[in-house]
Structure formats: structure tokens, C-alpha cells
Amino acid sequence: MVVGAFPIAKLLYLGVRQLSKPVANRIKAGARRSEFFRNYICLPPAKLYHWIEMRTKMRIVGFRDSTIKPLNEDAATELGAELLGETLIFLVGGGCMVLEYSRQSANSRRKEEELNETITNLQTQLAELTLTTETLDAQLRQVNRQLVSIPVPNKK
To answer: Which residues, in sequence order, are CB contacts of 86 under 8 Å at separation 6+?
Structure first.
């Protein structure tokens, strides 16, 4: 006997999230090996991230017009690969959240439609019962009038 529906969707989401971590690690390893991947995918975001981070730190400390030393290629490749892996994990997690939200909202919408249908059916039944009650009330009044109009014999 099944007590509740097996949460297969949640299990699949969890599986996808768990699989995204090794995939991200493979992408990071590939970024370290491939020249194209390193130069055009990993290095630009890493350099931008380093520049923004260092600029922010310098402004917080109080150095406004100081030059920022660029990251060396190995460190930038490592940082870019980490950023890419974390972005992939974040996107997969965010996608799972969006899918779960849409699934929950669809369930909620379906339940609300069922509730509205039930309310409509109950209102229809109430209207029919009101009409039946009014009809019976009219018939009762007619029978009462007929009873009143019947002459009652006097007993002496």
C-alpha cells in the first residue's frame, strides 16, 4: 500500500545537482589542458574578477589611484576554472529551484482549480435546493389556502 507519491522529481533534482559537481571538476581539468578553453573561456572572467576584487579592496583600504598588478596566467587559469565550475554548480542549482517552483505552482494552480470547481458545484446545488424549497413553500401555502377555504361543519 502506497502512503504517498514517491518524490521522484526531487530525487532527480538531487541527482542532477550531485552530478554537476564532478562535471564541473572535469570542465576545470579541461580548462587547464586546453589552450583555447584557457585563453577564451577561463582567463577573461578571471582577470575581470581579479580586477574588480582588487579595485574594491584598494578603495576600502583607502588607495584610490593605485595600479593593479595583473594575475599571472597560471593563477588566472586556476581562478577562471574555479569560477566556471562554481558558475555551473550555481546554474544547475538555480535551474533545479526554478523547476521545483514551477512544479509547485502548477500543483497549487491545479488544486485551486479543483477547489473553484467544487465551490461552483456547491453553489449550483444550493441554487437548485433554494428553488426546490421555494417551490415546496409555494405548494404548502396553496395547500394551506385550500384547507382554510374548506368549510368546517359546526358541531352542536
So the answer is: 24
